[in-house]
Amino acid sequence: MHHHGYAWLGAKQTFDKESVRRPPGPPPAASSPPDVLERYRQAVIEFPTTDVPPIQTAHWLMKPASMVRGTWEEPKEAGEWLGHQLTSLADRFTYESDRRVTESVTLVNAAVERLSWGGDVSLGHYLTGMAFHSVALVTCSSNLAAPEVNCPLQ
Fold first, then answer.
1. What is the pLDDT of residues 1-39, one digit of tens each?
2. pTM score
3. How far is 129 from 134, CA to CA, in rounded Å?
4. pLDDT in tens, 72-112
5. Fewer Cβ atoms within 10 Å of its own Cβ: the N or the C terminal residue of the chain?
6. Directed axis angle between helix 75-89 and helix 101-116, to 10°?
7. Residue 50 and residue 44: Cα distance in Å, rounded?
8. C-alpha to C-alpha distance for 51 and 62, rounded to whole angstroms
9. Could you tell me whether strands 70-72 and 121-127 are parallel, antiparallel, or unpaired per DSSP bridges?
């Protein structure tokens, strides 16, 4: 078992586009409303290549290996990377409570614990200027939430 790290920073408006954050499901019927057909078309084209975080954390593993920001065997090492991600942008977090170092330490400790039993971690923070920061740690080989998804680095 190992863990992959993913990070995204972008416009909240982009993050709010759910159609690109969900993998395409079964194709809709040809008689479906145009907006349903368009959402499906968008998902087929954009989901596999967009770096916008997926709705389900485990679905990061469906993305290209180039989106992996780090890989660690030990949960503690992955937690250290998470801590760096949080502290590097903490001064831009919209909410004062999210900026506190103690909050970051608590989140990192909880993440290490979750990774140790094979869970995933996904955190997001609103930043000043209508931006959003998402960071995720995904357990791989195999993932409890999506055991059918292969490691992107294999």
1. 999 999 999 999 999 988 789 898 899 999 999 999 988
2. 0.90
3. 15
4. 999 999 999 999 999 999 999 988 888 887 788 999 999 99
5. C
6. 150
7. 11
8. 11
9. unpaired
- Would you list the DSSP string of 30-97? TTS-HHHHHHHHHHHHHTTT--SPPSSGGGGGGS-GGG--EEESSHHHHHHHHHHHHHHHGGGBSSHH
Query: Cα separations (Å) of 57 from 14, 119, 134, 138, 144?
Result: 17, 10, 11, 7, 11
Q: Are 28 and 145 a contacting pair, CB within 8 Å?
A: no
Q: Which helix (H) or strand (E) holds 102?
A: helix 101-116
Phi and psi at 113, nearest 5°, equal -60, -45
Task: For residues 112 and 8, give the distance between their C-alpha atoms in angstroms, rounded to a whole number.
Answer: 20
Q: Which residue in this structure is represented by tokens 């593993």? A: 61
Cβ atoms of 89 and 126 within 8 Å: the answer is no
Both structure tokens of 52: 């916008």
* Total count of residues recorded for the chain: 154
| Residue (of 87, 41, 71) closest to 138 by Cα position | 71
